[in-house]
Design brief:
The protein is mainly beta. The chain contains 2 helices and 22 strands. The strands form 2 sheets. Strands 10, 11, 12, 13, 14, 15, 16, 17, 18, 19, 20, 21 and 22 form a 13-stranded antiparallel β-sheet that branches. Strands 1, 2, 3, 4, 5, 6, 7, 8 and 9 form a 9-stranded antiparallel β-sheet that branches. A hairpin with a 2-residue loop joins β12 and β13. The longest helix has 16 residues.
Amino acid sequence: MTGATYSWLRCLGLSVILGCASVVHAQDPAMSSVENAVKQADEATDGVFPSGYMIEFGDTEDWIRLTSGEWLRGDLKWMRDKDFEFDSDKLDLIRKAWNKVDQLHSPRVKTYVFNNKVYAVGRGMVTADKVIVETEAGVKTFPRGELLSILEGGRRELDWWSLRLGAGFSATSGNSNQGSLNMSFNLSRDDQRTSAGVGYEGTFGYVDRKENVSRHIGAGWIKVYISQRFYVIPLAAEIFNDKFANIRFRATPAALGGVHLFDTGKVEWDVEFGLGYQFTSFLSAAAGVENPQDDGFVPVRTYWDFDITGDIELILDWQSNIAYTQLGNTNHVGKVVFSVEVTDILNFDSEFDFFRTERPVPREDGTVPRKNDYQIVVGISLRLG
């Protein structure tokens, strides 16, 4: 077997493992410069830095070395919750577990966030046991085990924001005329310690020119990370309207605590619970039924995220709002989302949604809405930022 053939086969094998990531061959001269630069910085940080000391980088691009010994060149977009996202100029975006990274060489300015609300902004390197950051105040080192996240850029406000837009549509005509439209957006801001955002999802449908679906969900949240395992949500609120479920307006503000129960890089499992207030106004109500109604409730949520490959993701999300003042007003929402990344900003999504109210309120005419609603949405989504 020739050297070229061996190199090609090794690249092919690693590409299968990484989901077609960009693998740099050992003969690339820039790789040697990067290796030497990381080694030099690692050795230098064992001593005391002289005033004005600067890290010498081996290239102008970000590089990561995997635990397998292979190098990738491109741009580290972020690292958080033990995952990282890396964009190669030549190949697709990849998302993998951070524990697969042995070293990082990043001459671009990034924000490195650590335990105890410590962060550093600047160019940096990550070795097997250290994080080395060249800040405006000088070069600083931190234990790698205390690293929580890495974000692009310095403290520019724009660096923290992202937007996701989604749409799905289906229709038939002829013997049966029906169609449905689903639209959604999510605007979020993620900095060193917090995550906040607002979102909306609307579904409209018709059969033979008569409306048969009209559902709107608005949400907002603020999340504060306490450590790698624990976080709190001081405010999470949802507004719900469903014409055919007889719900004119339902608001559910709440405060929750969350814990990462399980996180291997491939699989993530979060559990949240808290306490909240539920206000429900009905479109109409049978005689003797109070309208509107007020309840206290306990929100319980479980969230699973399966990273099947670098481009394929499966999400399972379930939340129950247990109304302890009137158990009949308890409601549940479940989601299964299967997402395939087509480009850096475009995803193909398929989603199954489940909505349930334990005891629907009868309408004024005596009819009772069904307890369960199901929805399947197939569409695309755009992610910006």
